[in-house]
Amino acid sequence: MFTELTTLLGLFPAKHFVPRLAWLDKASGLDARVERNYEELDRFLERVLEEHRHDSGGDRASDGDGGGRKECANFVDILLSLGDGEDDGSVGMFLSRDNLKAIILDMIVGATDTISTSLEWAMAELVKNPKAMKRAQEEVREAAGGGAEKVAEEDVERTEYLKAVIKETLRLHPPLPLLIPRETTREVVLRGGYEIPAGTRVVVNAWAIGRDPRSWEEPEGFFPDRFLLGCSVDFRGHDFGLIPFGSGRRGCPGAELAAVTLEVTLAHLLHEFDWALPGGMKGELLDIAETPGLTVHKKSDLILVPISRNSG
């Protein structure tokens, strides 16, 4: 469902550009695809809300005043506590049923899909570059204490090369190659004499910026080392040569959460297992072609064989 949604979001409906050509979207089947996807998502989100609404009656502990509260409340539970689709005036904030669904959908599409896509690209690039894979694994395992069974979040804080791998992955494969469109509120003249009138819709190509040879040496190669040796380039919007999360007031509010999630998850995968391609295939032959869409996924699925480092 969510793959179809991101695919649809990356298409260009004729009616959005030439309203008189709206019939083309109907004739091509695009309108039917949108309606079908909407109905599937709506049913799914309704089920999520109902499951949490029913579960909220259990797993409660006394709060000391005779009332009750749910232990370990999650994101959906908190949203439901702010309205549950009914305005009873008790909270001072009302979220309608559609509001709740929209927020949950934003979290899934804006966070889950982009993070999982970036993680897949990181693993693909590491498998394709065995030396980088070995170096990242050795760093993570040393930070965790050699024979430690698990890697902790504070261990990940001590890893420099792993963070460089994340940066290089986001440079080559930003999860959203075209950032969310913007509209200029006033006339702007950029360096070089480029005039952008007020009211212009601007689409920033983060993918092209990350591969610009004027900013990056060997831009098509995977070289995490470029971010070491005192390099201060960051991906949180301060350096315009690397903006996978956008920049400024309209930058992604979840950039910090995404960075931590990517680092910790990748650290666990590298710490717990060695990785190989099926059939003894060499990493250098791995296809890393991209598929177009709102989120850029690998054209072919990444299939890896996990080998426990304690198996032998």
From TrEMBL:
Keyword set, alphabetical order: Heme, Iron, Metal-binding, Monooxygenase, Oxidoreductase
Gene3D superfamilies documented for this protein: Cytochrome P450 (1.10.630.10)
Residue positions binding heme: C252
Pfam families noted in UniProt: p450 (PF00067)
Classification via InterPro entries: Cyt_P450 (IPR001128), Cyt_P450_CS (IPR017972), Cyt_P450_E_grp-I (IPR002401), Cyt_P450_sf (IPR036396)
GO molecular function: heme binding; iron ion binding; monooxygenase activity; oxidoreductase activity, acting on paired donors, with incorporation or reduction of molecular oxygen
PROSITE patterns per the UniProt record, alphabetical: CYTOCHROME_P450 (PS00086)
Similarity comment: family membership: Belongs to the cytochrome P450 family.
Stated name of the protein: Cytochrome P450 71A1-like
